[in-house]
Design brief:
This protein is mainly beta. 7% of the residues lie in helices and 57% in strands. The chain has eight helices and 53 strands.
Length: 869
């Protein structure tokens, strides 16, 4: 077929040499066509090409026109190709294709007029499927669909009627278009929309539109239509960026009306596209009654090296006038920095940062997210780590920040260093093949130093960082030595010896002053050292119990019991020969307190008092195997009934009283992979004097009153339930729609309508058993009792309701509650979100286009929580 097209590229004089019949079907070898095309393309370049042209004319038996096209034209058709020599026309029928350079024309029927160089494409009806095959034109990444189209090979211009084209996220429907050689498009009577349907839900109608591919779509006066009905909304002009790359540009603000802050323009700003590795988004909020806010967000990346983002926000909120009761002014800021280096950039070396700092009231004054409003912790961590390949050495440097907005304290660590030597076997021979007991001895080493300070947020500032004497610092060395062996075939035995050394910079001695009736403190600064050590041995084994069943759904049950017993010894480092402790009076009584001068150390300290603990523990695991038709390989599946149930306690041989420690119980399991259940309880083995409320040195067992009495317990349950997807096997978060929507900063609420409903339930309960002096008996006190629920459900296929709430069973009140109603309008989304009650109650109504190119096309109505004051 391509060879036939070669004939149409010759002039009329050349065709007169041949005397074909009126209508002829012709074909040629495709390899020969490629050779012909190359020779035609270079026909006039040199004398050598002239010789090649002559030889080609001899091979074909025709003369080649000097105005032949410079590139090969490939043609194909599913039905037939017809060459009409009288009219100099070439016809392609049914699924016809013509490809020229980077352009391709597809249609039901294609007609090429050799005299004018014009290709005409027309639709036809497929008789097998009754479908209309419309012409389409493709050039590079651009694709257009037409009713009819004409393309001129010589002028490289195209004219189409009833055109449907796509540019990025937008679609354009035009009565007629003209496409120029520079790919620019002039359209007449067009509709621009981001709706992908053949009959779009909405559009911007303009009489004239110009398209510069890869850059912008510009229109004259335009009118917004909905469902084909014109609206009173007119635009004097329209500019829609369609660049595949990021570009700088303005972000139009959204208006809002609030009773306390007045008329506002929010989220307006400018986006700076700095380069392919960094950008900057600046946004501002202004209100008529004096409130304002600014923010700057920059993201940066260098592929295979690092990536990160930096955000700074400042808000000045003025609520009411100065003369009004309840008026206030708050100034808040927030700083967020995220940086992550690629571990492959520099093997063994990484630098990461996660900084989140701000004022205590930032989220409560400037956020509508319940999770952020309830957040009372800021934390930051900047770390640099390096490991030397082929050696056990590694180094970590970090700076940390912790801020509690409830008690307004800030803890700053700057810097913290850890030098670590990984586990080595110092006595293992490198040449001997025999195994010795000392080959299993392992050792490690850690050097840890830090400099930290704690401030109240009002006293925190740059001056605080420069006053080194107000910061606490120190260093420690930790050397653990251990070895593990198997004895009596089934018993695992391990030995350990741990050595610690501390380098400290201050000592504190306290003494009660009878003259001033207060505790006097004497603090000295300098360089001090202290050290401690401990040793121990641990024995453990596993006991298995199984029960098999010959019939029934349950095939068997297995119980794994893991008992362990150990002994640890530590001398008294407060007494001689160490003398790291002292006795002092802290009140008017004659009671002496045993204190350490290094009690304020930030890197720990030598413990006081001798310790010789015998540790007891037992852990349980219970599983059963049930018959399952879903497992087609074994026919069974394992079900865990108890993930872990442990009981631990210890006995101190070195103590003169209260040798037994509390009995601790831990339980956790995951039932049916749906319900997470965790429980813990603490029991005290010693009796209580109900007249004074003090513990007695006698155990309940010695007094014949049992083993231990209840002290405290906690229970947490959590479960997540959701329905099966309406369309199985689809993950919407991996879809093209999800990726496109997440690029739109204005589109923040992605909901998966494919999941009809989901429910998250969490329950927590904490109780303590306290002595009540008025009743002279134990009293159970509930310290924490919460029930929270969140989730969503579909009212219809495109209506979804979201909810988040909880109930405080101690104070008998609802926790922060949020409701949302969402409607998927295909190319638009409507949402109503509200916190219906409480100090942060508000509501917002948003109707916005999903596409980022029309992110400013939205309607917003909101009542701020400040209006509820």
């Amino acid at each position: 077929m391509a060879a036939i097209f070669i004939f149409t590229l010759t002039d009329a004089h050349a065709q007169s040499i041949i005397t074909p019949p009126d209508t002829i079907h012709h074909s040629l070898d495709s390899n020969k066509v490629d050779t012909v095309a190359i020779k035609i393309r270079n026909a006039d370049s040199s004398k050598q090409d002239t010789v090649s042209r002559s030889k080609l004319e001899q091979d074909l038996g025709i003369r080649i026109s000097k105005d032949a096209l410079p590139s090969v034209v490939k043609a194909d058709a599913a039905d037939s190709a017809v060459l009409d020599m009288k009219s100099n026309r070439f016809y392609l029928y049914n699924s016809a294709k013509v490809k020229y350079e980077d352009k391709q024309l597809d249609a039901g029927r294609i007609i090429y007029n050799q005299a004018t160089g014009v290709v005409t494409a027309e639709p036809i009806i497929d008789t097998m499927t009754a479908a209309i095959i419309k012409p389409s034109f493709t050039q590079g990444a651009d694709k257009f669909t037409y009713d009819t189209v004409q393309y001129n090979f010589k002028s490289v211009r195209l004219i189409g009627r009833n055109v449907r084209s796509q540019y990025g996220e937008g679609y354009m429907f035009s009565e007629q278009v003209k496409r120029n050689p520079d790919k620019s498009v002039y359209a007449k009577y067009s509709v621009y929309t981001t709706c992908s349907l053949d009959t779009p839900h909405f559009g911007i109608v303009a009489r004239r539109i110009k398209v510069i591919p890869g850059r912008v779509i510009a229109s004259g006066a335009a009118n917004i239509t909905v469902e084909g009905v014109p609206t009173p909304l007119f635009l004097p002009f329209g500019i829609f960026p369609i660049s595949d790359k990021q570009r700088s540009g303005f972000l139009l603000p959204t208006y809002t009306i609030e009773q306390r802050r007045g008329l506002g323009l929010i989220n307006g700003g400018y986006y700076f596209y700095l380069n392919d590795h960094a950008d900057l988004l600046t946004q501002t909020n202004f209100f008529s009654k004096g409130s304002w806010a600014v923010s700057a967000l920059s993201t940066y990346s260098d592929i295979y090296h690092y990536r990160g983002s930096f955000l700074f926000s400042y808000a000045y909120n003025k609520t009411g006038e100065d003369f009004e009761q309840g008026s206030s002014i708050t100034k808040d800021f927030r700083l967020v920095w995220r940086h992550q280096s690629d571990p492959k950039a520099k093997p063994g070396e990484t630098f990461n940062a996660s900084v989140d700092a701000g004022t205590n009231s930032y989220y409560s004054n400037n956020s509508y997210d319940p999770n952020k409003i309830l957040q009372n912790q800021y934390s930051s961590n900047i770390s640099y780590s390096k490991s030397w390949q082929g050696t056990p050495f590694s180094l970590t440097l970090s700076a940390r920040h912790n801020q509690n907005t409830a008690n307004r304290t800030i803890q700053l660590t700057l810097p913290e260093m850890n030098f670590f030597v990984a586990q080595i076997n110092p006595f293992q021979s490198k040449t001997s093949v025999r195994s010795h007991w000392y080959d299993k001895i392992t050792a490690q080493y850690t050097f840890h130093t830090l400099n930290t300070a704690t401030f109240i947020d009002t006293a925190f500032g740059l001056n605080s960082l420069t006053q080194f004497n107000k910061m606490q610092n120190g260093a420690s060395h930790y050397i653990p030595i251990s070895a593990s062996y198997t004895v009596l075939r089934f018993v695992h035995m391990s030995f350990s010896f741990n050595y610690n050394e501390y380098w400290l910079t201050d000592r504190l001695y306290r003494q009660y002053s009878t003259a001033d009736s207060k505790i006097d403190s004497v603090e000295t600064n300098g360089f001090y050292t202290a050290r401690d050590f401990n040793t121990g041995v641990q024995l453990s084994t596993r006991i298995y119990g199984t029960k098999m069943f010959k019939s029934g759904k349950i095939k068997g049950i297995r119980h794994v019991l893991t008992p362990n017993v150990g002994f640890t010894y530590r001398p008294d480092f407060g007494s001689s020969p160490f003398n790291y402790g002292y006795y002092s009076h802290l009140d008017t009584t004659s009671t002496l307190s045993y204190l350490s001068p290094y009690a304020t150390s930030v890197v720990s300290q030598p413990p006081l008092g001798k310790q010789g603990n015998i540790n007891f523990g037992i852990n349980n695991n219970l599983q059963m195997k049930v018959r399952s038709g879903k497992d087609t390989i074994t026919g069974y599946k394992n079900v865990t009934l108890i993930d872990g149930f442990s009981i631990t306690t210890s006995y101190n041989l070195a103590a003169d009283s209260f040798n037994w420690s509390n009995i601790n119980m831990q339980f956790h399991t995951n039932l049916l992979d749906k319900l997470n259940f965790t429980a813990s309880a603490v029991f005290d083995p010693y009796a209580l004097d109900y007249n004074t409320g003090r513990r007695l040195p006698q155990t309940l067992f010695d007094k014949g009153e049992g083993i231990a009495h209840f002290t405290s317990a906690s229970i947490t349950l959590g479960s997540n339930f959701h329905s099966s997807p309406r369309t199985p096997g689809t993950d919407r978060t991996n879809s093209e729609e999800y990726t496109r929507l997440m690029r739109n900063a204005a589109y923040k609420d992605y909901l998966d309508f494919n999941i009809p409903w989901s429910v998250n339930v969490n329950y927590s309960l904490s109780i303590t058993n306290n002595y009540a002096p008025y009743s002279k008996k134990d009293t159970l006190i509930t310290s924490n009792h919460f029930l929270s629920v969140s989730g969503d459900f579909n009212l219809t296929e495109r209506w979804k309701v979201t909810y988040s709430s909880g109930y405080d069973l101690v104070h008998h009140q609802l926790t922060l509650t949020q409701l949302g109603i969402f409607r998927d309008l295909h190319c638009w989304q409507m949402s109503i979100q509200t916190i219906p009650f409480g100090p942060n109650r508000y509501y917002s109504f948003t109707l916005n286009a999903k596409a980022s190119v029309l992110q400013d096309l939205k309607l917003l109505k909101r009542k701020d929580f400040r209006d509820a004051l």
